[in-house]
Specification:
It is a single chain. With 127 residues, this protein is an alpha+beta fold. It has one domain: Gcn5-related N-acetyltransferase (GNAT) (Aminopeptidase), CATH 3.40.630.30. Helix content is 31%, strand content 31%. Strands 1-2-3-4-5-7-6 form a seven-stranded mixed β-sheet, sandwiched between helices.
């Protein structure tokens, strides 16, 4: 079961989830752990946790023509076992007026979420 961590609880849970976030950060160059924590505390990103196996970081991106929920990072263990948990994030995003979800990552995401369309290394799904 996945749950969203309220921004006011991020600092308290960070010691338990930062290792999962670091696993995702280790596979890219854009983000550092301290930057993600800062964004979560400032409400610029959202933290989702499957206790204590996996952490997901999302960001709502608003453009003049669209509102998108971007899955920024996902790290931890058991992605295949927990892949259906993304549905909870999709429902939350849709309730916030997002029109689609986007994943940015390795091609392996396509095997986990085949109903997402690959756009280079970015995948999307209409909500």
């Amino acid at each position: 079961m996945i749950f969203q961590v309220p921004y006011w609880d991020v600092a308290k849970l960070w010691p338990r989830v930062s290792g999962c976030v670091q696993m995702a950060i280790d596979r890219q160059r854009e983000w550092r752990l301290a930057d993600i924590r800062e964004q979560l505390l400032a409400q610029g990103m959202q933290l989702w946790v499957v206790p204590w196996d996996m952490a997901v970081v999302t960001q709502i991106q608003t453009y003049p023509g669209a509102r998108i929920c971007m899955l920024v990072l996902c790290g931890g263990e058991g992605l295949m076992e927990h892949r259906d948990e993304l549905g909870e994030i999709e429902r939350w995003a849709k309730a916030l007026g997002c029109e689609e979800m986007r994943l940015m990552g390795r091609r392996g995401w396509g095997r986990v979420y085949p109903d997402y369309e690959e756009i280079a290394t970015v995948m999307r799904r209409k909500l």
